[in-house]
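Q: What residues go here?
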C-alpha cells in the first residue's frame, strides 16, 4: 500500500513537471494566446478593420512571445494593421466610426484611396496567409482557437 501511494505521488510529480516544463519553447506563447484570445475575439467582432486595430496591442504582446517559426507571420499581420491605423489617423478618421460607403465630411479622395489601399492590403495573399498561419499555430500548438 505504501509503495502504491509513493508510486502515485512520483507519477503525479512527473506529470506535473511535464505540463509545466520550463524547457517547452511554446509555454509562454501559449499562455499569452490563452490570455489574449477573448480580447482579440471581442475586438474583431466590432468589425474587420476597426476590430483589428483594437486588437493591435494584443497582437503585439503575442508577437513578443511568438516562437521563431511564427514570428515573421506576426510581424506581417502587425505591419498591415499598423498601416491601416496610420492611414486612418493621418486622415483624422476614427476607425470605430469610419464607413467607407459614407465617408466623413472633409475626407479627400487621396486620403480615401490610401485608406482603401491599406484595408485591401490586409486581404492580400501574403497577409491573409500570415493570419491563417498564426491562427493555425495557436490551434495546433496551443490547442486554443484564435480568430482574427
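A:
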Amino acid at each position: 500500500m505504501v509503495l502504491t501511494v509513493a508510486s502515485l505521488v512520483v507519477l503525479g510529480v512527473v506529470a506535473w513537471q511535464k505540463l509545466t516544463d520550463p524547457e517547452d519553447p511554446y509555454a509562454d506563447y501559449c499562455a499569452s494566446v490563452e490570455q489574449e484570445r477573448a480580447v482579440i475575439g471581442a475586438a474583431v467582432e466590432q468589425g474587420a478593420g476597426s476590430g483589428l486595430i483594437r486588437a493591435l496591442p494584443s497582437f503585439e504582446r503575442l508577437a513578443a512571445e511568438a516562437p521563431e517559426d511564427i514570428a515573421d507571420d506576426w510581424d506581417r499581420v502587425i505591419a498591415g494593421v499598423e498601416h491601416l491605423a496610420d492611414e486612418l489617423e493621418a486622415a483624422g478618421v476614427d476607425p470605430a466610426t469610419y464607413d467607407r460607403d459614407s465617408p466623413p465630411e472633409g475626407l479627400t479622395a487621396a486620403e480615401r484611396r490610401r485608406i482603401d489601399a491599406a484595408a485591401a492590403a490586409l486581404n492580400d495573399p501574403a497577409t491573409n496567409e500570415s493570419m491563417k498561419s498564426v491562427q493555425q499555430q495557436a490551434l495546433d500548438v496551443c490547442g486554443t482557437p484564435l480568430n482574427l
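A: Context that may help when evaluating the design: Residues 25-142 form one domain. The radius of gyration is 21 Å.
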